[in-house]
Amino acid sequence: MSSREQLGRPYGERTATQLVAGALTGDEGSWSEIVRRHTNLVMARVRQFRLTPQQAEDVAQTVWLNLLEHLGDLREPEALPGWISTATRHECIRMTNVSRRSIPVDPTTGRLDAQDDVELDRELLRTERHAALRAALAELPPHQRELLLLLSTDPPPSYQEVSAQLGIPVGSIGPTRQRGLARLRQTEAIRTYLATPSGAVLGEGGRDVLALG
Amino acid sequence: MSWHSDDVSLPQPRPADRWEDDDALAADLVQALREEDVLQRVSAAASTAFGAHRGMLALREELATDLLLLSLVHDSSTAGELTGVRDRSGQPSRTLVFEGEGVGVEVEVTDGAIEGQLIPARPGRVVLRRPDGDLAAVDTDEVGYFRLEARPEGPVRLVCETTDGTCVTEWLPW
């Protein structure tokens, strides 16, 4: 297939090389797809370092800003995951050091590359799992989705509060929840997730670059 | 493993079996939704970054000379070791040095102010920029010293203009 034909494809099917080329010419759709493919990686890192939401936002913004400025120097677009993973890790460490709050984090976190890889893998698996659950929830009919969303707030509301808020009888909450969860298991998002082997996030070459981090 | 009652202890297989249980599935759903706020911030930060970058490219177009990117070469908060948890309360300030192609800028960030110096020493103008706009701007003195009354939050950069050209520091939360 010629590159001209490939550029007509949806963003989700384009190669990293095509997306980088697109982002460099100012195509925001290409940039958004690069971001979409690597958000799990950034999320896993900020979870690994137990950052607050504000710290996580600052780290992510710093990584995205600097990535945009280095996008043109990236010799091998397939190395993107490694670059992002390493840059995010460095910004997380910096954020941890600068933060004035005492941080309830194991000082050895992420300091040894072997351990770092294990931790990052664990957070990546968790991030993938959470993404699947959120996608599954979006597939549910509104009445089940709204109930599960409400029951998932922290702290969980009482059934009386749920009843008042959603205008459904207290007695129907339990059964609706049960049917909603059953349906959640049958969603395409969950079935695809359970059928897909994990660990594809870093892609080719990602691990090698990570080792340099 | 009692201190890891959370599900972070060991390599995790696909949780098909665990999700047979309603309460286990609901508990994972709570975790997944709790993450949504951060997820949205991370995605929104990428859009802001794109806008800021396009702005910088537009600035580059206006310039007669090239826009030089200065890299961070020293950060007192991570100097010597990228390890350990440090409480900065004992340190009055943070020193950052940015360099590129023989020029640079050194800044000292304290609680309410930023003091800095252009390298090599020469007069100019500095602008403290956030991704969504400018925070402060000031002319330096004859030897390139400047002081900005600002305590920036989130990533910022300095845009330094001298008669020799314009340079920008890499993005960094100060």
- The overall pLDDT of chain A, averaged over residues, is 84
Taken as a percent bin, the fraction of beta residues of chain A is under 5%
Query: What is the beta-strand fraction of chain B?
Result: 35-45%
Annotated CATH architecture of the largest domain in chain B: Sandwich
Defining traits:
heterodimer; A: 213 residues; mainly alpha; 11 helices; disordered C terminus; B: 174 residues; alpha+beta; ten-stranded mixed beta sheet; 2 helices; 35% strand; disordered N terminus
Can you walk through the features of this model?
The complex is a heterodimer of chains A (213) and B (174). Chain A is an all-alpha fold and 213 residues long. Chain A has a domain of 138 residues. Chain A is built from 11 helices and no strands. In chain A, helix 7 crosses helix 9. Chain A is globular, with a radius of gyration of 21 Å. The C terminus of chain A is likely disordered. Chain B has 2 domains: 50 residues; 109 residues, Immunoglobulin-like. Chain B contains 2 helices and 10 strands; from the N terminus they run H-H-E-E-E-E-E-E-E-E-E-E. The longest helix of chain B is centred in the N-terminal third of the chain and has 27 residues. At the A-B interface, helix 3, helix 4, helix 5, helix 6 and helix 7 of A face helix 1, helix 2 and strand 10 of B.
